[in-house]
Amino acid sequence: MTERFTGSFTQQEPIPEEAIEAALAVLRHGRLHRYNVTEGELGETALLEQEFAAQTGAKYCLAVASGGYAMATAMRAVGVKPGDAVLTNAFTLAPVPGAIASVNARPVFVGVTEELTIDLDDLAAKADQAKVLLLSHMRGHLCDMDRLMEICDAAGVTVIEDCAHTMGAAWRGVPSGRQGAFGCYSCQTYKHVNSGEGGLLITDDEELAAKAVMLSGSYMLYERHLAAPGPEVFERIKYHTPNVSGRMDNLRASILRPQLKDLDRQVARWNERYQALEAGLRDIPGLTVIERPAEESYVGSSIQFLLLDWTPKAVQEVIARCAARGVELKWFGADEPAGFTSRYDSWRYAQSERMPASDRVLTGIVDMRVPLTFSLDDCAVIARIIRAEVSAVHQSQP
To answer: 3-class SS at 378?
Structure first.
């Protein structure tokens, strides 16, 4: 009998009871707005910021409406102006070039390696084309951050880290988001903490932090922040920084605080599932497993593999055969974007030159979510199905 997987690739775990109770408390008193507090009360948003700053070791933190808003705010704060070039990954998701476009800047795409990280040789070659790199740790894969920072520091390039897929990850023990001028995180449902939508950004730079707070709509109430610089820093910038209102509300912050306390345990659970899948995908003819470097501490909330140099028809056959058995795989090689699987040549508002080496990698990328609703037995079933279908299609190729 042919195995079939019957689970859901989009079903998340329930919100924890502690978070539900915290949300109900906010709903009962009705003070949802980020600055709506009673005398002596510390708002949920301010507490979230304080706690996430401590958790990451950052001096300052700002909670905002989305990961995309966090990236746009970071770019505005570091001085990106309309028409400026901003370096970013060719392998990323649409909100990253979208954030660049939202500040009327121009993406300059940098290639991707077979390890699914930014091509550092290509970055070094293009570093003189822009003053800012919006670095996407796409699908949780961390590049050699030591070399990346050496390249960018030497070229005078400011790094903003998109950590949507690396909350809880680290490079050589340094938390993801702590090496650039800003680290930006997402709290969208399919990320590592779930408030439906939301974002966080961290920095150690007091002036950048103050600008971000003002941009997020402080209405001169910056003294109510617990993870922001002192008032003297705001005095320097408050009349020159526009309000682009987007700080997180107290309701979403209340949902996130208990989840962040539990992040380490959740990361361990994701990695158990990732490692079970990875073990099941090894040694399949024609399939390349992405090897994780020893310096990287990752979060296995999704898994990727490569079908390098396969024809598009053969890859599509694998996707279809797995789908017929209940396994939802996404492919980054299609000519037309489908769902979230767009790529650099899909974003026609951003002109780009062809990158043949990166195109080869992108055409081979197969991607799969790893929800915590999966059991380890589920992961074993999924791996067996992928093994069987990849092997069947590979054997049928001329």
So the answer is: helix
CA atoms within 13 A on the CB side of 255: 22
pLDDT per position as a tens digit, 156-192: 999 999 999 999 999 999 999 999 999 999 999 999 9
DSSP 385: H
The CA-atom distances, in angstroms, between 318 and each of 49, 311, 358, 387 are: 44, 11, 22, 10
CB 67 within 8 A of CB 313: no
- 331 in helix, strand or coil? strand
In angstroms, the CA 109 to CA 38 distance is 48
pLDDT tens per residue, range 313-365:
999 999 999 999 999 999 998 888 887 888 888 888 988 889 999 999 999 99
DSSP state of 166: T
Domains of the chain, each with CATH number or no CATH: 17-261 (3.40.640.10), 263-396 (3.90.1150.10)
Specify the amino acid at residue 258.
Answer: P
pTM above 0.90, yes or no: yes
Please name every residue paired with 199 in a beta bridge, in sequence order, or none if there are none: 64, 186
β-strands 170-171, 296-297: how paired?
antiparallel
